[in-house]
Amino acid sequence: VQLQASGGGLVQAGGSLRLSCAASGYSFSDYAMGWFRQAPGKEREFVAAISWGGGSTYYADSVKGRFIISRDNTKNTVYLQMDSLKPEDTAVYYCAGALTLGHLVRDNDILYWGTGTQVTVSS
């Protein structure tokens, strides 16, 4: 199983980035997918999750209205469109897979973790 995240970078406050996470080695469309982040000196926090079919999504309050999670099951890829970025969004972002959206929201029984991609937002 491999989850490869990409798309991070350095952006000014108010800017946008689109993260991608390409999955391989398991039946991607059978699992909910999500994004987490971890800033230096802080605990990992849930960002967003999407159900296996894409019909349900859930966001942390801190990103609601600014971030959009989506997935393309034909490409085994999950995306995170991040707009109106703030310096407090600076973190390493990780994609993850679990049986249900609820598991991701609760950060419980996460089955698959991807590599991280650094997002830095300058003020």
Describe the structure concisely:
The chain is mainly beta. The chain has one helix at 101-105; strands at residues 2-6, 9-12, 17-24, 32-38, 45-50, 57-59, 67-72, 77-82, 91-98, 112-122. The chain contains 1 helix and 10 strands, in the order βββββββββαβ.
Structural account:
- There is one protein chain.
- This protein has one helix at 101-105; strands spanning 2-6, 9-12, 17-24, 32-38, 45-50, 57-59, 67-72, 77-82, 91-98, 112-122.
- With 123 residues, the chain is mainly beta.
- The chain has a 6-stranded mixed sheet with strand order 2-10-9-4-5-6.
- The longest helix is centred in the last third of the chain and has 5 residues, at 101-105.
- The chain is globular and about 40 Å long.
- The N and C termini lie far apart (37 Å).
How are the SSEs ordered, and which strands pair?
Blueprint: E1 2-6, E2 9-12, E3 17-24, E4 32-38, E5 45-50, E6 57-59, E7 67-72, E8 77-82, E9 91-98, H1 101-105, E10 112-122
